């Protein structure tokens, strides 16, 4: 999918499908989506690093769900994840 089409692809269907893909394909799609986002570069780099270290497609899906919830204002306040990414940004 071209980046221009993926720009608004932070939807439930995309996120739900990540864990069903092979690990490398899930990583690639997630990193492509993160790369067109408007978040700060150091947060993008942190996400890309975590996605690269993911050991399963389910972990890629979890990382992307956390990023989606946080960006939508529905993340857990003061969670370990938000503290880690807060330091990154």
List keywords for this structure.
69% helix; disordered N terminus; mainly alpha
Concise account of the structure shown:
By secondary structure, the chain is mostly helical. The protein has one domain (about 5-89). It contains six helices and no strands.
Oligomer: single chain
Strand composition percent:
under 5%
DSSP helical segment count: 6
Helix content: 55-70%
What does this structure look like?
The chain has 89 residues and is mostly helical. The protein is 69% helix and 0% strand. It is built from six helices and no strands. The chain has helices at 3-6, 12-18, 23-35, 41-53, 57-71, 80-88. Helix 2 runs antiparallel to helix 5 and helix 3 packs parallel to helix 5 (57-71).
Layout of helices and strands:
Layout lengths: L2 H4 L5 H7 L4 H13 L5 H13 L3 H15 L8 H9 L1
């Amino acid at each position: 999918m071209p980046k221009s089409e993926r720009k608004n692809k932070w939807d439930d269907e995309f996120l739900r499908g990540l864990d069903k893909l092979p690990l490398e394909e899930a990583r690639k799609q997630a990193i492509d989506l993160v790369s067109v986002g408007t978040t700060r570069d150091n947060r993008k780099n942190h996400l890309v690093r975590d996605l690269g270290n993911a050991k399963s497609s389910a972990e890629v899906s979890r990382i992307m769900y956390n990023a989606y919830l946080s960006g939508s204002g529905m993340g857990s306040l003061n969670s370990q994840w938000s503290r880690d990414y807060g330091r990154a940004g």
